Amino acid sequence: LHAQHSQGLQSPCMDLCHVPATREKGWYLVLMAPNVKGPNYAWLDPSRLYCHPQGLQDCVADLLQPFQGDAIDMVAGIDAMGFILGAAAAAVLRKGFLAIRKAGHLCVQTLAQPYTDYSGREKVMEVRTDAISPGLRILLVDQWVETGGTMRAAIQLVEQLGGPPPPCPTGVAAICIEDSEGGRWIRERYKCAHCVPSGLQPRFDRHQ
């Protein structure tokens, strides 16, 4: 998997038809593309993964596997790339999908939460106030958890509107939850799912 990962990051294109004979957890990570535009961008771009039919299906299945048998009433995705995985997870679970948005995009009554994103920029996140009722069990989904600031803001919004108790959110899912201070804070308090094999986690934490 290490060799496949390195080879996949160096390749400028991908084969949407190729599926490996043995699909171990995280095999689809080789489809992701590295940052070629400099420090103002995230270090890795997972969007290429979403173009691969089997890769996307297996990624969503891995994110949902730890929550098999858990009560989930709704899936919430975080603006913007969390919308892709969150909506896909909601479709698999046959549940509704809630978009948690950056400020200024919702024309209804909202609850707002300021936060600092992975790049150190100050932002504000909003969620509509009529979608979450007390006790609703929500699975929070984002593409990536780097410093944890964005996910923590989403958690605060959901908990202000929906509890606890019971546990709300019921869990957190992302392709990668880095071993940062914020990532550890989330892992220690909430049930989490991610797609990175343990052997590769240190490399992802170092952005290699």
TrEMBL record:
EC number: 2.4.2.7
Subunit structure: Homodimer.
Main location: cytoplasm
Residues that span the membrane, as ranges: 74-93
Keyword Plastid in record: no
GO CC term (a single one): cytoplasm
UniProt GO MF annotations: adenine phosphoribosyltransferase activity
Family in the record: Belongs to the purine/pyrimidine phosphoribosyltransferase family.
Keywords annotated in UniProt: Cytoplasm, Glycosyltransferase, Membrane, Purine salvage, Transferase, Transmembrane, Transmembrane helix
UniProt entry tagged with the keyword Transmembrane helix: yes
Protein name as catalogued: adenine phosphoribosyltransferase
Pathway involvement of the protein, from the record: Purine metabolism; AMP biosynthesis via salvage pathway; AMP from adenine: step 1/1
Organism name: Chionis minor (Black-faced sheathbill)
Locations listed in the record: Cytoplasm
Alphabetical GO biological process terms: purine ribonucleoside salvage
Catalyzed reactions per annotation: AMP + diphosphate = 5-phospho-alpha-D-ribose 1-diphosphate + adenine
Phosphoribosyltransferase domain boundaries: 69-162
InterPro entries for this protein: Adenine_PRTase (IPR050120), PRTase-like (IPR029057), PRTase_dom (IPR000836)
SUPFAM superfamilies: PRTase-like (SSF53271)
